[in-house]
Amino acid sequence: MFTFISSTAPEILYTGRIDRQPGGAHFYWPGSNARVRFTGTTLSCELTADIVWGTVCLGLVVDGRLSRVPLIRANNGRRTTLLLADGLEPDAPHEAMLFKQLDCSYSYALHGFSTDGAFCDAPEAEPLRLEFYGDSVTAGACVEAVDYVGRTDPCSNDACYDNAWWSYAWQTARNLGASCHLTAQGGIAVLPHTGYFHDPTQIAMDETWDRLCYFPEAGPYSRWDFSRYIPHAVVFALGQNDHHNALTGKDDLVCEGEYRAAWKRAYEKIARGVMAHYPEGTPLVFITTLIRHERAWDEAIAEIVEELRAEGLNAHHHLFARNGDGTNGHPRIPEQAEMAEELTAFLKTLL
Q1: Is-contact 241 194, C-beta < 8 A?
Q2: Confidence class of residue 1 from pLDDT cuts 50, 70 and 90?
Q3: Lower CB count within 10 Å: N or C terminus of the chain?
Q4: Rounded distance between C-alpha atoms, residue 277 and residue 205, angstroms
Q5: 122-152 pLDDT, tens digit each
């Protein structure tokens, strides 16, 4: 005999910008997750997925073991039952986390979980909460291509190396025993008509920072209710894609002159918009990454931090030891861990 709980059941703990509707909990942003505790030898879920592109999987952690569950594009739009675990020890407590491993390559609606045992009370939420705004590095793009440490990305990977679990952001959260929201998307830049996300009709962070559903393939745009998650610190990690000009299709934007001024204004506006929802004094930490980039972006960020501090915001600038000079490709698992260790230490000084 199997026990089924719907997506609205109190036995499920959700973390992330998730649209919890009676017909299903809709997942959009990477790292968004649902956790349950149960007794039984099996665990399954029911969901409806919509794959946009790529090799798509769900992330899964059962009793501390990380794995993945492939999704099949032929099942797009169909309510599907997926076996998540079997052969577990009977009459023993188990915990599982199902999470969105990638960013805009797919979305899904979780309808519920079932087990041949019973569901227990929901796991307890972590007392410390973090929030990250970033691009592909924060989303965990190409992180599992560990044979390419310090090198450019594999020529063709079809998102098969992407995994938000290994992003510096989620590693930092685990280091601190914290939960985290990853408002992150590969290729995204601060300003419209820049960056690589949703080429050729670029979507920028100044449009998406307050969204729940943020890309058109997943459905109508919707707003996030910031009261649902109040972080103890916010990390901003943008600037890597902002040299790309969508109007010319070239990397011909330089962080100087009027573009630099407009970029700073837009970035500061995002930070102020976020802080309008959070308690006064919440630390805001601005970073870039180990990917090689012009120092002018970090210099502009330092100016942003000083200007926000002059307005009374608790803003900080953190530079990694190998900031902007660590790799020509996306940081892999060990490079993301390097960033996480340094950011963890820095956040400990603020929290």
Answers
A1: yes
A2: confident
A3: N
A4: 17
A5: 999 999 999 999 999 999 999 999 999 999 9
The alpha carbon of 319 is separated from its chain's Cα centroid by a whole number of angstroms, namely 21
How far apart, in Å, are the Cα atoms of 194 and each of 99, 239, 249, 270? 29, 11, 9, 16
What whole-number distance in Å separates Cα of residue 169 and Cα of residue 25?
23
Query: Do residues 208 and 274 make contact, with C-beta atoms less than 8 angstroms apart?
Result: no
Rounded CA separation 326/40 (Å): 46
Residue 227 Ramachandran class (φ > 0 left, ψ -120 to 50 alpha, else beta): alpha
Q: How far is CA 261 from CA 75, 257, 297, 331, in A?
A: 47, 6, 12, 29
Quick: pLDDT tens for 33-62: 999 999 999 999 999 999 999 999 999 999
- Residue 264 and residue 252: Cα distance in Å, rounded? 18
Q: Any idea what DSSP says for residue 137?
A: H
Say what the pLDDT of residue 157 is.
82
User: What average pLDDT does range 313-338 have in this prediction?
Assistant: 98
Q: What is the pLDDT of residues 82-131, one digit of tens each?
A: 999 999 999 899 999 999 999 999 999 999 999 999 999 999 999 999 99
Rounded CA-CA distance 296/17 in Å is 32
Structural contact between residues 139 and 103, judged by C-beta atoms closer than 8 angstroms: yes
> Given the DSSP bridges, would you call strands 106-115 and 178-184 parallel, antiparallel or unpaired?
unpaired
Q: What is the DSSP letter of 342?
A: H
DSSP state of 140: T
- Angstrom distance (rounded) from CA 197 to CA 195: 6
Asked if residue 237 lies in contact with residue 290, where contact means CB atoms within 8 angstroms, the answer is: no
What is the tens place of the pLDDT at every residue in 273-309?
A: 999 999 999 999 999 999 999 999 999 999 999 999 9
**CA angle centred on 219, ends 167 and 269, rounded to 5°:** 60
Phi-psi region of 195 (alpha: psi -120 to 50; beta: other; left: phi over 0): left
Which ranges constitute the DSSP H helices of 177-224? 205-208
Strand pairing report for 128-134 and 118-119: unpaired
Residue type, 121: D
